[in-house]
Design brief:
Two copies of one chain form a homodimer. The longest helix of chain A has 17 residues. Chain A has eleven helices and 13 strands. Chain A is of the alpha/beta class. Chains A and B meet through helix 5, helix 6 and strand 13 of A and helix 5, helix 6 and strand 13 of B. Chains A, B: This is D-2-hydroxyacid dehydrogenase. Chains A, B: Belongs to the D-isomer specific 2-hydroxyacid dehydrogenase family.
């Protein structure tokens, strides 16, 4: 957007405004809004910053977007704004690729070691003041399949390899010699490869192809000692099938940071299943993440105002930023 | 020991005999004993295998050791057999250096990430089915002081560095350019250096010099956000001072695998303090560790029978195996 008028920027954020917006407010008319006011805020706006990145309200208010040219979302996953009217328009969509990568990688390594060292059980025994020695597992040499070869999956692969694990990837196309994964298997062959892994980490973008990828057949194909980690999206998993696989001992455990419904409802059996670690969609959210998210937006905002190419442009047909872009 | 007679080997093991002893039983008279029978077993024995490595019974039975030439202990720490009569004799003492290094390193990385990602709190909230988003910490770039530069300390340093942390060591003598630590500070300067670290890991051997090293002055010197990890020996710490430091918020947390008294008594306040992770002296004990311990002993036993130099010979005046040996 290049022009003499100040652009109008709608910011979907609810009660919690993004920090560090002074510089942007100095050069744009900024309309902060919650979901209810979104249609009004979109009318006449040139750009939309989806700061409340879990909201799915954009689809319902999009009819009012009469001149929006650019939408930026403060997350890596763009599935909340992947509705047909936006996807099939020529509105540019950008995301916050890169902000969460290393923090999520630390989290994934942490839950894997927690499983190997039986840390949750130690905490439970500690609560009961019970001293009970157990043997633990090593992580060195254990095989991990990282499903999703975007920047977060790559950061996870690098971290787990550095800690001595053996890591492969799974993406749309099979290939060898990948710099982070070595071997990348094709997702079409998921069931063939699952028996060979001790840990399976889901971090794929949510698309029509990946929705429900982890269903009963996938859990049945994993070894009984395998643990499943989901830091992607809850909808990658058929939750009922995961619950059944855990209950039946088809897999040995799961660490879940994302869920089909968030917050996870009180009556969901995942809360109380043994060998399940639940965290409330926070694996990437290190102290300072909100400032970093605004920095990423502000960088793109400046590019947009000066007519330079935006960073992290989503291929809306794929549903993510293609690698190398 | 070279001779035509089968040597006599006393094995202090209580009810749980070491595994995989067939080969040794074929070439030696093996006397398995518990603490009560130890003196009888030692009388006429040529060597002693302290498989029950936490037992302190050897000192009390040593008067009966009329021809023991070699003592091997199934642990890295040799403090349970560091009584004057053995220390000042010419009996050779060997340990199980190397068995636990990488497993303990994994454990230390795991508890550090558990602190950074608030994992214990997630488990507590999960128990109450409570969804509460929090911001977490990064581990990348955080500064760790590893007190103890033996093989376990080195494995910890390599692992934490691989995961992106900034690590220094602390040993008897200050030096630079160490291959695992970079900078090594002198333990005499402990209090001067503690303010500069986010995590302090105790893994020094227990000697007269290190006993009670972590007392009130040390905890006072750490930053308020620091966490303390002990995978060495409980006696490195003045427990009452640690409890007070945790209660007063002088430090932010502790992960403890070893204690002055083990099992940790029911009424010890450490069980219930917030931000304390307790595990029952198991950080190195991966599945298969007992077999590995016997492998290490068997290797030395074969060397001993054939008159070759033993591995892992302890400098009994120092109280550990000097590096490079």
């Amino acid at each position: 957007m290049i022009g003499t008028e100040s652009p109008v920027l709608a910011v979907l954020c609810g009660d919690r405004h993004p920090p560090d917006m002074d510089h942007i407010e100095a050069t744009a008319k900024v309309r902060y809004t919650d979901e209810r006011g979104l249609a009004d805020a979109l009318r006449g706006a040139d750009a939309l910053f989806v700061y409340d990145f879990l909201s799915t309200a954009v689809a319902g208010a999009w009819h009012a977007a009469d001149r929006v040219r650019w939408v930026h979302i403060a997350s890596a996953g763009v599935d909340p704004v992947m509705f047909p009217a936006l996807r099939d328009s020529d509105v540019v969509l950008t995301n916050s690729r890169g902000v969460f990568d290393d923090s999520i990688a630390e989290y994934v390594l942490g839950v894997i070691i927690a499983f190997a060292k039986d840390l949750a059980r130690s905490i439970e025994l500690q609560r009961r003041r019970e001293w009970r020695h157990r043997e633990s597992e090593r992580i060195a040499g254990r095989r991990v399949l990282v499903v999703g070869t975007g920047p977060i999956g790559r950061a996870i692969a690098r971290m787990l390899r550095a800690a001595g694990m053996s890591v492969s990837g799974m993406g749309r196309r099979a290939r060898s010699g990948d710099e982070d994964f070595g071997e990348v298997h094709a997702s079409a062959d998921l069931l063939d490869h699952l028996p060979g892994y001790d840990y399976v980490v889901a971090v794929a973008p949510l698309t029509d192809q990946t929705k429900g990828l982890f269903a009963a057949d996938a859990f049945a194909a994993m070894p009984a000692h395998a643990r499943f980690v989901n830091v992607g999206r809850g909808e990658l998993v058929v939750t009922a099938d995961l619950v059944k696989a855990l209950r039946d001992g088809r897999i040995a455990g799961a660490a879940l940071d994302v869920f089909e419904t968030e917050p996870l409802p009180d009556d969901n059996p995942l809360w109380t299943l043994e060998n399940v670690l639940i965290s409330p969609h926070m694996s990437g959210d290190f102290a300072g993440w909100r400032n970093t998210l605004v920095e990423v937006f502000a960088e793109n905002f400046q590019r947009w105002q000066t007519g330079r190419p935006l960073r992290n442009v989503v291929d809306k047909q794929l549903g993510y930023v293609p690698s190398g872009h």
